[in-house]
Each structure stands twice: as structure tokens, then as C-alpha cells.
Amino acid sequence: MLFSSILFLYYFLPIVMLLYFAVPKCLKNGVLLLASLVFYAWGEPKYVILMIASIVIGYVSGLLIEAFHNPKWKKVCLVLSLTVCLGLLAYFKYAEFFLENFAAITGITVSISKIALPIGISFYMFQILSYIVDVYRGETAAQKNIVHLAAYVAMFPQLIAGPIVRYVDIAKELENRTHSIGNFALGARRFIVGLVKKILIANTLGELCDIFRASDEKAVLFYWLYAVAFGLHIYFDFSGYSDMAIGLGRIFGFTFLENFNYPYISKSITEFWRRWHISLGSWFRDYVYIPLGGNRVSKPRWFFNIFVVWMLTGFWHGAAWNFVVWGLVFAVFLVIEKLWLLKWLEKAKVWNHVYVVVIVLIAFVIFNAADMKEAFSYIGGMFGAGGIPVSSPEFVYYLKSYSVTLVLAVIGATPFVKNAINGCLEKQNKRKVVNVLEPIALVAFLMVMTAYLVDGSFHPFLYFRF
Fold it and tell me: Could you tell me which of 364, 361, 258, 372 has the C-alpha nearest to residue 317?
């Protein structure tokens, strides 16, 4: 079930909100859990059992780790639970990849039946893993109520595509949270903003990417147009989903941490990854990078840690070599920046932004490629390999056709609109106008989005496949 669907907006969500706010406080997590299971089962009925089993593993592991006083047994329990959780993730997401590469290296084919990837398994499994590790570290108490823990893991606002919400960040809200008209209004506004980003911008740019891939008249500038379109497409698609998740969380009394902070205004790749998919970056930092020693080790070991983390970050996104290469590309530039480039970037005022945008766009071309052969072909096309023309009539036509969307996307990828609105709110006379116009604009946007959904086609979120 998609957030950006008539079914969710006008049937599922209203019914869930009606039930949620009608029941007493002690039953709210139960309603949220039931709604989340229905939400997940709508698209993946057979894999609800897998998610429930994973929740039970996390629940029992947390209780056992807390119950054992002997550090040895605590560690044994931790290792076993992590092995089981990672084993499930490896089987469902990576088994076919490993077997294909094993066959390519050895010539020995091991056939298994096709394994369907459970939607959102990378997200909810990482949440369970972080919970288990945090209990082991003593950073949170084990949750005694399995309904509360299950509501945290299965919570439909962020279940399918994040952000990755850590138990420690919402533990108190699971037990006791407040609901208010103000929070509801803030959540609804954030949700509608995310819906606009997804439907008006991300979906439109996705169409342009599809047109390019099907085109027989590719040119250098058309390749760059595709790279720009996809870079903006994935940003508005994923940040739009995150906005909707954060907004829904606020409606139900939860405060989820931000997941994006205008990454395309970054002045270095280091800064970019502090602003892009923040929840994933912080997860790998706290549960992989720091345990490996972080930067408190020798320089060779430090760089090794960076490469391990970014190889895993790429691999987390998908069982294919282009994802691994995508992660390693960022690792290379992060190491180069730490060695000497950051000092230069701090002084460069325009070229640092150009550098970041070019590297990120090329990296996302690799990310979106069907395989490494296509990735190299596309990158070669961006730089004129094979003698392809610089421009083409088709490029000019689609540039003109999508120019308004591209301009809006570029502006929307910066804090310009946010700063303009905040500037108005600081002045009393303009604040009154904004307070009157904002709800009208939001309702109008919702009506327009509804019209798009009624007349539009199916556009799943990119991160559903991860």
C-alpha cells in the first residue's frame, strides 16, 4: 500500500486515525500495531510471518540479554541473536547474489528457487538489530511489553522505506506520548509537503528518466539531463517519503528524527553524507564504524574502516555489484577529502558545490544502472565516449518539456523556500498572511494531488526495493 494512493489517503488512514483516537491510551499501541500489520500484509501477506518472527527474536533476545548478569552469557546471547537476524536478511536479500557469484568463480551451479525480497526488510531488521545492541550496551532497558516493541518495529509510517528509527529515540513515546491539535496540524502539513514532493516532482522526473532509458537518440547532453533528473528524482522520492513518515509519526504522537537536510547544497562529500539519508549514515557510524575503531586507530586502519562501512552501505541498498561500487566511490572521495582535499574545498566557494554535484550525479548513475556494463556505458556517454553527438533534437525537446519541473526541483532542493517562509513569519504583518494562506494552500495541494492520483499511474517509492 502506497502513501501516495487513494486507498491509503481516503480509506486506510482515516479509519486508522478514527480508531486510534477513539480508544483509550492503553490500547493505542495495539491499534497502531494492528493497523501496521494490515498495512504490510496488503502488499506482502506471506512475509508478515517473517516480520512477526523477527520481532519475537528481538523481544526474547532483549529480555535474555538484560536477564543475564554474566557478561559472557550476555555476549553469547547477543552474537546468537545478531547471527539469526543477519542470517535472515542475508538469505532473503543476498542468497541469490552470493550463489550467482560463487557459480561465476567456481563454475559450480547451486540452484535454489526464486526468493522474493520482503518489502522493507532492510529497514525493520536494522531497527531490531539496533534495539538488541542498545540493550546489550545498557543504553536502554529491554521492553517487557511485546506489543510496544512490535508497534515500534512494525509502525506503518516508517515501516517500508524508513527513516530508520532507533528504539532509544522513541522509547519514552511508546510508553507515554501526548497528542494535540498543534502536533496533528504539523504532522498533516509535513505529510502533504512530502506528498507534493513525491507526486509533482519525483514522479515527473521519473518519467523523464524512463524516457531517456528508452531513447535511441542519446547524446552527451541527454546523458547529463538524465543524471540530473535521476539525482533530483531519488532525492524528492526518498525525502518525500521521509517527510510523509515524519508527518504521520507526529500525528500519532511520535517525533522521528530528520532524514534529509538539503544535501545538494553541500560543499564536500563528507558534508553531503551528513545531510543525505541521515538515519542510515548514523546507524552505520554507531553500529559498524565506531565498533571497528572509527578514527581512533592508525591511519591505514582508519581508511580500512571507512571502506568497510561504505562497502556495506552500498551492499545494504541491494544485492548487485553496482551498489557496492557506488558505496566504494564515496569511500574513495571521503578518504581523499580527509587526506588533503577538505582544506582546498573550504577555500573554494563555487567549485566545491560543482565538485559535489558532479561526483554525486555520476555516483547515482552507477546506483541506478542495471549492471556495471550499463553504468560504464552511461558514464562514457556523459563524457562523449564512442563519438556520440553533443546534442540531439530529442534532448532539446525533453529539456523544454520538463524545464519547469527541473527548475522547481532545483529550487526545492535548496533551503530557499523554507528561508523565505521563515523570513515572512518573523514579520508580524506577513506572519498573519502566511497563517491564513498556508492551510488554504495545503488543502489546495491535497486536492490537486488527489486529482493526479485518480488520473495517474502507479509509481512505487524507489526505496521499496531495498
Answer: 364
